[in-house]
Structure formats: C-alpha cells, structure tokens
Design brief:
This protein has helices at about 5, 10-20, 25-35, 35-55, 65-74. By secondary structure, the chain is mainly alpha-helical. Helix 2 packs across helix 4. The protein is globular.
Length: about 70
C-alpha cells in the first residue's frame, strides 16, 4: 500500500460523486485499489446509482453503516 493511500480516504460525498460521474481521479483510484472499506462504500453508491438510472420502482435500501455515517455527519 502506498503512503498516500493510507493517509487520505475520499469523503462519502466524493465517493457518491465518483459513482454518479463514473469518473475517479487518479489519486482516488490508487487509494481504492488498496482500501477495501472505500471500495465497498463506492460499490454501494454505484448500486444505488444504477438502480436510479434504471428507473427501478423498488428502492434500494442503503446498508446500516451508511445511515450511521449520515447520522454522524448531522
């Protein structure tokens, strides 16, 4: 793991934007290669984004840890 990827996790907001844009800056992409937690969060955001783009009528329920993160930021 590189030193840079250890010190800076993308914010949940940044990860959500990466999921929406399908674009990940090089520094964040390097971090995601090494950080399973951030990869998992990004995958969750991508599932929600894909469901929204597909016009799914059944809402995708975010995982409990996502709500904990939201609650902690309020």
């Amino acid at each position: 793991m590189s030193a840079g990827s250890q010190t800076h996790h993308p914010s949940p907001g940044d990860l959500a934007l990466f999921a929406l844009d399908d674009e990940t800056p090089a520094e964040a992409a390097e971090h995601l290669r090494d950080c399973g937690s951030c990869r998992s969060t990004l995958a969750q955001f991508r599932r929600v984004t894909e469901a929204g783009r597909a016009g799914a009528t059944d809402p995708v329920r975010p995982p409990a840890e996502m709500w904990e993160t939201i609650r902690d930021q309020l």
